Amino acid sequence: MSSSSSSSQNTLKVGIVGFGTFGQFLASTMLKQGHTITVTSRTDYSQLCNQLGIPFFRDALPFLEADNDVILICTSIISLSDVLKSLPLHCLTRRTLFVDVLSVKEHPRNLLLQVLAEEMDVLCTHPMFGPESGKNGWKDLSFMYDKVRVRDEVTCSSFLSIFESEGCRMMEMSCEEHDKLAAKSQFVTHAIGRILVEIGIESTSINTKSFETLVKLKENVSNSSFDLFSGLFIHNRFAKQELMNLEQGFEMVKQKLLKMNEEQNLSKSNNAMNGY
Question: How far is residue 3's CA from residue 36's CA, in Å, rounded to a whole number?
Answer without folding.
Answer: 20
